[in-house]
Amino acid sequence: MELKDAYKKKMEAQLKELSAKIDLLEAKVESAEAGMRVKQAEELHELRTKWRAATEKMKELENSSGEAWDQVKETADQIWEDLKSGVSKAHDKFK
Length: 95
Prior knowledge:
This protein has one domain. Helix 1 runs antiparallel to helix 2 (34-62), helix 1 runs parallel beside helix 3 and helix 2 packs antiparallel against helix 3 (66-93). The chain is built from three helices and no strands. The longest helix is centred in the first third of the chain and has 29 residues, at 2-30. The chain starts with a helix and ends with a helix. Helix content is 91%, strand content 0%.
C-alpha cells in the first residue's frame, strides 16, 4: 500500500506542475500573432485533453488494486510520459 500511496502523491504533484506549465503556455499564446495563436491554441487543446486523460487515469489508480493496479499504472505511466513530452515540446515551440 505504501508504494501505491507514494506513486499517487508523485503523480498528483506532477499533474499540478504540468497544469501550471500548460497555464503558462496559454498565457504565451494570448500574446502571439494571430496566425500562430490558432496553431498554438490547437496544441494547447491537445495538451489539456492529455492532462484530463491523465487525471482520469489517476482516478482509476485510486480504485484499483493488485494486478489491476499494475496494469492501470503501466497505462498511466505511458499517458504521463506523453503529456510531459507534449508540454516540453510545446514549451520549446512557444519560446
